[in-house]
Automatic annotation (TrEMBL):
This is Pyridoxamine 5'-phosphate oxidase N-terminal domain-containing protein. The keyword NAD does not apply. Keywords: Oxidoreductase. GO terms for molecular function: coenzyme F420 binding; oxidoreductase activity, acting on the CH-CH group of donors. GO terms for cellular component: cytosol. Residues 4-126 form the Pyridoxamine 5'-phosphate oxidase N-terminal domain. Pfam families: PNPOx_N.
Amino acid sequence: MEKLTDDAKQLLRRPVHGWATTVRPDGSLHSTVVWVDVDGDDVVFNTAVGRAKEKHLRANPQVSVSVLDPEDAFHLVSVSGVARLELEGADRVIDGLANKYLGVDTYPYRQPGEQRITVRVTPDKVIFSPGG
């Protein structure tokens, strides 16, 4: 297990879009844009139950989450690890991400009947570049 440096956490705390890569049932990779944050030493993002990311992670919890600084193409962090899916507190997490990325108190894109789920990744591998 590797730890995130303070500089890597600082980049992950910025409202910079990341991407999460999961493994489809056929073994191919699936990457999607996500809102990310840091909680302690873990990277977190959020999705809805029933979406592709959640289904893929239930079948194979291997995941990678990466963020690239839009102001410096050599400033990046990429974290790989095993995902833990958490229903408890997931609404609070998505509202916090909406505040971080949109400046609103409540996630505005919630669908009727949607159940949110948080994906928590404790880093097994960290790639960090401080930029140029």
